[in-house]
Write a structure and sequence with these properties.
Blueprint lengths: L15 E2 L12 E3 L1 E4 L2 E3 L7 E8 L2 E3 L7 E8 L12 E8 L12 E8 L12 E8 L12 E8 L30 H4 L6 H7 L10
Parallel strand pairs: 1-3, 2-5, 3-5, 4-6, 5-7, 7-8, 8-9, 9-10, 10-11
Length: 214
């Protein structure tokens, strides 16, 4: 699916196979034009990595800490990034397609032109992050932590946001009408101006202490 609000990753037609060149990930190092496919990257604890014009396909990240990573023009397809630490990441023109990101740590991260499609992101930590032109489509975001984050042109479509924590995040103009939002954590001032359907409006009335009588 194409998203008019997003700029797709700028990927070259020819990529270098990561395994063939036998790269080892090293701190504060930039990698470009790679295809990383069908492997497990285990127990890496490396800060300041940069990946540009790279595709990760069916890659499993285990026990991995990659703080302050820089991802530009990158696509993740069918990858498992569950429970990895990408705190303070900078993520630009990047796509996550059908990936598992359960419990991922992306606090204090910066996102610009990023697509999450068909992803499982339960319990993901996005606290204090800045998201601009980001699309979540058909994602499971149950119990995600987006507290005290900045949302600018962010879209949630057909996604599960039950028990999501959104306190301290302004939601004006954000359209939740196709999503599940039961039990979200937010303040009255946070949800002012959010776009919801009538059933969701009844759900959010609890934030004002209202008791609905049927």
């Amino acid at each position: 699916m194409k998203y008019k609000a997003l700029t797709a990753p700028r990927l070259p037609q020819s990529l270098t196979n990561f395994e063939e060149v036998q790269y080892q990930l090293e701190a504060d190092t930039s990698y470009e034009g790679l295809e990383v496919k069908d492997i497990a990257l285990e127990d890496y604890r490396v800060d300041g990595l940069s990946f540009r014009q790279t595709i990760f396909k069916n890659v499993e990240f285990k026990g991995t800490i990659l703080k302050a990573i820089d991802l530009t023009d990158v696509r993740f397809e069918g990858c498992d990034l569950s429970n990895i630490d990408l705190s303070n990441a900078i993520i630009h023109r990047t796509e996550f397609i059908n990936c598992k990101l359960m419990g991922i740590r992306l606090s204090d991260a910066t996102f610009n032109n990023v697509l999450f499609e068909g992803c499982i992101i339960n319990y993901g930590n996005f606290r204090f992050s800045r998201l601009k032109q980001v699309v979540f489509n058909e994602c499971n975001l149950q119990s995600i932590d987006l507290q005290a984050s900045e949302l600018n042109k962010v879209s949630f479509s057909s996604s599960n946001l039950r028990q999501a924590e959104l306190s301290g995040t302004r939601l004006a103009g954000i359209d939740f009408s196709t999503c599940e939002i039961e039990g979200i954590g937010a303040r009255i001032e946070d949800v002012k101006g959010a776009i919801v359907n009538p059933i969701q409006a009844a759900e959010l009335s609890r934030l004002m202490g209202l008791v609905l009588k049927l």
